[in-house]
Amino acid sequence: GPVVEFWTSQSIVEVDVLEKNNFGRSALTEGFSSEKEDVVKALLEHDSSSEEKLLSTSSTGGKVPEGEGLDSHIHHFFDKEQPLKIRELAMKNADNPFADTERPDQDTTGLSIWSASLVMARWMQAVAKTGYWKDRTVLELGSGCGVPGLMVATSNTSCKPRQIYVTDLNPQTVENLQYNVELNEVEDFVKASRMDWDDKSTWPEERVDFVIGSDLIYIKSLVPLLTSVIFGTIKPGGKFLYVCPDTGRDGLDAFVEALKQKCPGWV
């Protein structure tokens, strides 16, 4: 911890926490494998792991392992013995990833792994150790590559959830989600599907014990819709768990306020 904090806080030597060694592992990858929160925090807060950089590290050069193209990369996250395997794809329109707000199905942000989803996955792994998910139903909204939802599925094999729904809107994102479900061999209880927040026929048929999500709000106009989706898919007394950056997202404050008002016992 202190060593990582020292190297990430000095400016004499140029440090790049995303630079990969000969084994294709970066300081950030190793940091997540260490399971030490202060180490991960120091690495994620370093200038070299800005969101733009994180998004542009998805393509791989040189020899390409099976199941990968030049515009994709399979990551092995968190645990060296039993890693979470996640395929990340290069965003097709990285200059305008959120697409036209009138056509949210064109949004390709879900092809990439965002830092909030990695932090969320860590949290999901920590609570799994207490048997939190045993026999429960879980819905992940805006799953993207599915890092948190698949962590719920794989982190404690003796206390597995009954059913997990990983969902997104863009069909290509959902296709990649399905790929990642199969990559981790959890398709018997994890269902990847296209969910349109505006169309209840695409929502899971049952209400769930937990709704989870990371970095879901980036435009203020979505706040009422997302709020109604959360309360429309969760069982009475169920829980919504959320991780996001604390700044830089339009509508974030309004979303947090809306939820606080609806949930007097929020934490």
Molecular structure report:
The structure is a single chain. With 267 residues, the chain is an alpha/beta fold. It has helices at residues 2-9, 27-34, 37-44, 51-56, 115-128, 147-154, 171-183, 223-233, 252-262; strands spanning 72-77, 84-89, 137-140, 163-168, 190-194, 208-214, 234-243. Helix 1 (2-9) runs parallel beside helix 3 (37-44), helix 5 packs parallel to helix 6 (147-154) and helix 8 runs parallel beside helix 9 (252-262).
| Biggest pleated-sheet summary | 5 strands, parallel
Q: Outline the low-pLDDT stretches.
A: 57-66
Radius of gyration: 18 Å
In N-to-C order, the SSE pattern is HHHHEEHEHEHEEHEH
- Structural class label: alpha/beta
Shape: globular
Q: Let me know the average pLDDT.
A: 84
Based on DSSP secondary structure assignment, what is the total number of beta strands? Answer: 7
Oligomerization = single chain
State which percent range the strand residues make up: 15-25%
Q: Determine the N-to-C terminus distance.
A: 28 Å
Give the count of helical stretches.
9
Strand order of the largest sheet: 5-4-3-6-7
Helix content: 25-40%
